[in-house]
Specification:
By secondary structure, this protein is an alpha+beta fold. The chain contains ten helices and 15 strands. Helix 2 (27-35) crosses helix 10, helix 3 runs antiparallel to helix 7 (299-310) and helix 4 (170-198) packs across helix 5. This is Replication initiation protein.
């Protein structure tokens, strides 16, 4: 007769739960399922089923039910790209981004290897000034004094904050962040026009002979404003498989970028804040990407740099990584009762905020940008920007990384390749176990039904996940010490 364990003397809830799991018949399967998540911080808990059958004969090839699991649920990775939320999933996202960018620079993943000989530039576009801030400029390795008279250290929290907060244009800064994505889209249009003008060609002639491909990523500066790093590549009319014409040179690209930066602008009209012009900052860089590995700016360095920032959020600016909108009332400050009348939201007391802005653990400069975004978001003329929703992002609401259609492969295609590889591994395991293999000529049809239950682990599972993370980090450190610097998987 089975007697339940007396674990009242075990203080730790996680350890108590782990002991209970270890004394069940399905502990090996629990361990396997957690290990398969590769250290995911907050896995998705699903309940449901799926079947794969031969379309012709109706024979069921594979079937799965979550209720057959020891815990009665299926755990799957959260897939969050943000390193602050899930380091494990963000590393996989960074790896995919790395190979996506690298393929557009040196070929592979169905991209012609000849692209490495196309004119390519690494372009950095910044925001304009909205008031002087504390900075740390260097001259021949020596740190110069800031305008405040101090030589700031590299980690000085004052860096990026206004010298005079009372005169700093917070409204302009938040509105610039909010329109940065649209400014980039307009820049790509003006870049083509500037290139045609510089080369003394019509737009139609240019489009028939030359294609511009790009990939970009957004990065936060310490002052809370985003700037963009972009790879811009010249292709022939058929894309990456064709060479661009001889007159499409890196020098022409550099000149065109300068012209487009100067001319690109958006105009905003508002009764509350007046007319505003959204433009690029005067500081921008256009660097040549070396075709060979002996250059300073190589394919691998550029791809690694962009992949690194693809997993970042606004944490680099010192803000929080969560929305500040009250979920019960969706930021409105009121809820609609059964009688259809509006009532004050009890959770936020009518503020619409999940947390009081005054109590956020951030610097005053960041808090003021959040407060400004929240206030602007409730003006009628800026309602479509939903700035209250993106206040924790200091107003920025665009995609952190994006690319033109013809630049290279897609994240979806990379994930499909990984999925096919895992299916092939599973099929090989079936064959090794003596089970009948699947005929590749068989047409399969899959039917499934899934429902979301929750996110996260049981306390005991969290301990298993922590052990998995430790083992993965140990392996990565060992590989690094052995000299394998390319830690991004294919």
């Amino acid at each position: 007769m089975h007697h339940p364990l007396d674990l009242s003397h075990v203080i730790s809830p996680g350890l108590r739960d782990l002991v209970e799991l270890a004394n069940t018949h399905g502990f090996d399967r629990v361990t396997e399922q957690v290990r398969n998540l590769r250290g995911c911080t907050s896995p998705i808990n699903l309940q449901g089923w799926s079947t794969t059958a031969d379309r012709t004969t109706g024979e069921v090839i594979r079937s799965y039910r979550s209720e057959d699991e020891p815990s009665g649920r299926l755990l799957t990775t959260c897939g969050n790209r943000r390193a602050s939320r899930c380091p494990a999933c963000s590393r996989l996202y960074a790896a995919d981004t790395y190979h996506l960018i690298k393929a557009g620079l040196s070929g592979g993943k169905k991209v012609a290897e000849s692209v490495r000989h196309h004119p390519r530039a690494f372009v950095t576009l910044t925001a304009p000034s909205f008031g002087p801030v504390h900075n740390r400029e260097t001259d021949n390795g020596n740190t110069r004094r800031c305008r405040c008279g101090t030589r700031h250290t590299e980690n000085d929290p004052a860096l990026g904050t206004p010298l005079n907060p009372a005169t700093y244009d917070y409204t302009g800064a938040v509105l610039w962040n909010a329109h940065a994505g649209a400014l980039w889209a307009r820049f790509t249009t003006y870049l083509r026009r500037a290139l045609a003008e510089h080369l003394k060609k019509t737009q139609s002639t240019l489009n028939a002979a030359l294609r511009l491909s790009f990939a970009k990523v957004a990065e936060y500066q310490k002052r809370g404003l985003v700037h963009f790093h972009a790879v811009i590549r010249f292709d022939g009319p058929d894309g990456h498989s064709s060479r661009p014409p001889s007159w499409a040179t890196f020098k022409a690209l550099r000149v065109a970028v300068g012209m487009a930066v100067e001319r690109t602008r958006l105009t905003i009209e508002s009764d509350a804040v007046g007319e505003r012009h959204i433009t690029w900052g005067k500081r921008f860089k256009v660097d040549r990407i070396a075709a060979l590995a002996d250059g300073e700016l190589t394919d691998a360095k550029v791809a690694g740099y962009i992949a690194k920032y693809a997993t970042k959020n606004a944490e680099g600016a010192g803000t929080v990584d969560r929305t500040l909108v009250c979920r019960p009332c969706s930021g409105r400050g009121y809820v609609r009762g059964p009688d259809r009348f509006h009532g004050l939201c009890a959770d936020c007391e009518g503020t619409g905020q999940a947390e009081l802005l005054a109590s956020l653990p951030v610097q005053q400069h960041v808090r003021q940008m959040i407060r400004t975004a929240w206030a602007l978001g409730h003006l009628p003329e800026f309602a479509d920007l939903k700035l209250w929703k993106w206040a924790h992002m200091l107003g920025f609401r665009g995609h952190f990384s994006s690319k033109s259609r013809a630049y290279s492969t897609t994240l979806g295609a990379l994930r499909e390749v990984r999925r096919a590889w895992r299916l092939a591994q599973a099929e090989a395991a079936r064959v090794r176990a003596g089970l009948p293999g699947r005929n590749d000529a068989t047409t399969l049809v899959t039917d499934s039904s899934w429902a979301y239950l929750a996110s996260g682990y049981r306390p005991g599972e969290e301990l298993l996940a922590a052990q998995t993370r430790h083992e993965i980090e140990h392996q990565r450190r060992f590989r690094h010490e052995e000299g394998d610097l390319c830690l991004l998987p294919s």
